[in-house]
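Consider a typical record:
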Amino acid sequence: MRLKDKVALVTGGARGIGREIALCFARQGSNIVIWDVNPQAAAEAQKEIEGLGVQAMSAQVDVTNSKQVDESVNKILDKFQKLDILVNNAGITKDNLMLRMAESDWDLVIAVNLKGTFNCTKAVSRLMLKAKSGKIVNIASIIGIIGNFGQANYAASKAGIIALTKTTAKELASRGICVNAVAPGFIQTEMTAKLPAEIQEKMRSAIPLGRFGKPQDVAELCLFLASNESDYITGQTIIIDGGMVMA
């Protein structure tokens, strides 16, 4: 039980990678808080997590709304009296070529992905500073490192998360708080499953390991970064992409 009796908040934790992270942490003994804009999916995830023998709570939270974030953090304190781990996973895409991209689609992706990470980190770090401990894991993307056609907004938001990770890691390190980012490559999700077969094959051929990653792969890396095993790692962006991008 690598996270026994810890309390972890996973934003966007109702589906996909976020849900897998929440389940992974729960199997290691952590109590779980799920925030998501889909309350029904969040409640279903909460029920599944509670079936693993830990406590859980879920809430409909818009991470772009700082007031709502602060109020929801206070509710976590009311139930658990602490918060040890934050996983900033909430994110969206609104893809289009830059010249065709609506300003509203730019604003929304930056707001959810980057501002949302800022809002949650700011609210939670206040608690961690008092406790003089904590782990923050930000979900970035290799797209924030290499860019991608039709994803100017998404790439900018994920690159911003990487820079935010480095800055907050420096600001919080003196109080024993570690902040790191995970940059997944192509992972088997609902989004990749909808792509045409020829596109999937082209993407797969660019991966030296010859396959897409699984949500569990990302969850296990997040588990390591949330555990005591990573106490001397902070300010890092760890790529998990099957070797697609090699520095």
